[in-house]
Structures are given as C-alpha cells and as structure tokens.
C-alpha cells in the first residue's frame, strides 16, 4: 500500500526522488557492466549501441501520439497512415529507426477539463491508444507488464503500455483509478500543470505556494500496481 500523507514535506518527496534516481542509476550501471563482457571492441559506438538495442528493449516512458490524434484527427486512427504521417515525431519508420522496444503512450487531457470532462476525455485517449495499437499489429503489441514487454520484444514488436498524464484524469476517485487499471493503464503522474485536490503541481516550486505541502492523504493506490510519478 502506498499512502500519501499530508505530513510529507517537499524535502521528503525530493529525498525519495533522489533515492529512486540513485537506484535506477545503480541498476543501469550494473546492467551496463553485465553487457560489457559481450561487447566486441572492434565495433564502432553506433554499432555497439545497435547491438545492445537488438538484445535489450529500449523503453520510452512518454509519448503524446494519442493527443496528436485527438488534436489533429479528432481521434480518428483510420484517416492517416502512421507509416507516412509526416506532421508528427512518431511515425513507424522513425520508431523502428530509433530501435524502440516499448512505449508508454500518454493519455492526456488539458487541466482546464478538471472538474468537468477530464475522465471522459482520458477514457477517449485510452481508447485511441488501443485502436492505433490494434491497427498496426505487425508493429505494436498491447502489454501491461514487464513480461509483456519482453514477449513483444521477442516477437519483434513494440510493447505498448498506457500512462495517465495528470491525476486530474481520475477526478479524485479511486473507483476511476481502478477502472483505468482494468483498461490497462500502468502509470499516472500525480499532477500536470495544475493542482489536484490532493497534490501540488510543479509550478509551486516557482513561487513557493504550496497548497498541500506536497500531498494529502489519498491512500490504497499501491495495490493496483500503478506507478505514481511526481511530475
């Protein structure tokens, strides 16, 4: 269980983030040392990088493609070809060229939808992600776990996961959070550029205007196996 308490100060949150980052760096260093023994010193840096990425899935934690579908195509995934769509950064050829192994696709809605239709729009974003993933089965494979990422990678596909970009997407409802989990969402940033009723957003750092001193009590989210990110 992860319980966010109002007694958590900004300093404690920062310390926790540093510990998390140190852990990730240590893991990365250990992983890198493990790969070093298999490196061919005759290869160029580019060739070594491509060799590693051919054996280890590269996971990107955030991609706004679903929002581009909403903004530019009214959520239609059939009116544009992701192989040739030139107005975006994430066409299929670019993803393949970048050796992407897995992608967290962001389900995003503006902060001005908070207290109004944020949940509905976030649901539509999840739906859009699932539809464009399904439209290109030779490229993407919808997954919800680390094992799923490895399975997709072994099949030569990009493991596709979903993250909610901002806690305002759940309208302060654990019921909504559970529903999003059932739909396949596996991370949620606590805030975007606006406070929720239970968390300060990053802008509070600029003028030291903390409404909640970081977080309020909003418990029992850990058991849903959703990663909570401090944005």
TrEMBL record:
Q: So which domain of life are we looking at?
A: Eukaryota
Keyword annotations from UniProtKB, A to Z: Dipeptidase, Disulfide bond, Glycoprotein, GPI-anchor, Hydrolase, Lipoprotein, Membrane, Metal-binding, Metalloprotease, Protease, Transmembrane, Transmembrane helix, Zinc
Cross-referenced Gene3D superfamilies, in alphabetical order? Metal-dependent hydrolases
Q: Which residues span the membrane?
A: 12-35
Membrane topology, as annotated:
Lipid-anchor; GPI-anchor
This enzyme catalyses: an L-aminoacyl-L-amino acid + H2O = 2 an L-alpha-amino acid
Q: Cellular location of this protein? A: Membrane
Q: Which cofactor does it need?
A: Zn(2+)
One function term, GO molecular function aspect: metal ion binding
Please list the GO biological process terms of this entry: proteolysis
State what protein this is by name: Dipeptidase
Q: Which organism is it from?
A: Biomphalaria glabrata (Bloodfluke planorb)
Q: Its gene?
A: 106059428
């Amino acid at each position: 269980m992860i319980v966010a308490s109002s007694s958590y100060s900004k300093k404690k949150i920062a310390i926790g983030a540093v510990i998390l980052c140190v852990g990730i760096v240590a893991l990365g260093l250990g992983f890198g040392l493990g790969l070093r023994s298999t490196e061919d010193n005759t290869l160029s840096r580019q060739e070594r990088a491509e060799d590693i990425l051919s054996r280890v899935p590269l996971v990107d934690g955030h991609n706004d493609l679903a929002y581009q579908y909403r903004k530019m195509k009214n959520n239609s995934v059939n009116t544009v070809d992701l192989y040739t769509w030139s107005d975006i950064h994430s066409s299929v050829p670019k993803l393949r060229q970048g050796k992407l192994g897995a992608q967290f696709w962001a389900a995003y809605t503006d902060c001005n939808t908070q207290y109004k239709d944020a949940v509905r729009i976030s649901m539509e974003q999840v739906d859009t992600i699932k539809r464009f993933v399904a439209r290109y089965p030779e490229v993407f494979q919808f997954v919800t776990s680390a094992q799923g990422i490895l399975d997709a990678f072994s099949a030569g596909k990009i493991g596709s996961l979903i993250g909610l970009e901002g806690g305002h997407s759940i309208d302060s409802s654990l019921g909504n959070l559970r529903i999003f989990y059932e739909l396949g969402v596996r991370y949620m940033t606590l805030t975007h550029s606006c406070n929720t009723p239970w968390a300060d957003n990053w802008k509070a750092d600029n003028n030291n205007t903390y409404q909640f001193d970081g977080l309020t009590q909003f418990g029992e989210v850990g058991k849903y196996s959703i990663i909570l990110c401090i944005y």
